[in-house]
Amino acid sequence: MTLQPAFTLAVQDAQHSFRRLLKAMSEPGVIVSLQQLQHGWQPLNVASTSLLLTLADHETPVWLASALHNDLVGQNLRFHTGAPLVDQPQQAVFAVANDGISAEQLNVLSAGTVTAPETGVTLIVQLASLSGGRMLRLTGAGIAEERMIARSCRTASSTN
C-alpha cells in the first residue's frame, strides 16, 4: 500500500477546510480555496482530496467516477477517512466525478425528499478551472439575486 499525505495538522487543517467548504456550500457560486494540501491523490485534485478528507468517514459511502478511481485513491481514502467505496452512484453519500459524468449517472443519484433532503447525494464535480470557460448563471437558495461563474470542462487532475 502506498500512503499519500493527508493534512499535516489533522485537526486544524480539517477545521479550516470545513469552514471554507461550509461557506462554499451555503453560498453557491462563491469560490473558496482549499490550500491545506500540496498535492491531491492523483487523479483527484487538491480540492477533491481536501473535501473527502474533511467530510468523509466510515458512515459516508463514496462513489468515484471510473476516471477518478484507482487503487491509490481507494487505499488512501479508506486509510485516512474509513469511508467505504461503493460501485454504484445511487449507494453513495458523496459522489465524485469529473466533467464527463453521464446523464445516466446523474439520474440515479438520490436527490433526497422534501421531508428528508439530507438523504440526497452530495455531488462533487472536479473541474479544471472556474475561470475562462462557459459562463453559468446561478440562482436559487443561498443566492440573493444571481451569481455568474465560468467553468472550464477540461479535466486537469493537478489543478485546485
Automatic annotation (TrEMBL):
Family matches, as Pfam families: PhnH
Any one of the GO BP annotations: organic phosphonate metabolic process
SUPFAM superfamilies in the cross-refs: PhnH-like
Gene3D superfamilies per UniProt: Bacterial phosphonate metabolism protein PhnH
InterPro entries the record matches: PhnH-like_sp, Phosphonate_metab_PhnH
Protein's name according to its UniProt entry: PhnH protein
Gene: phnH
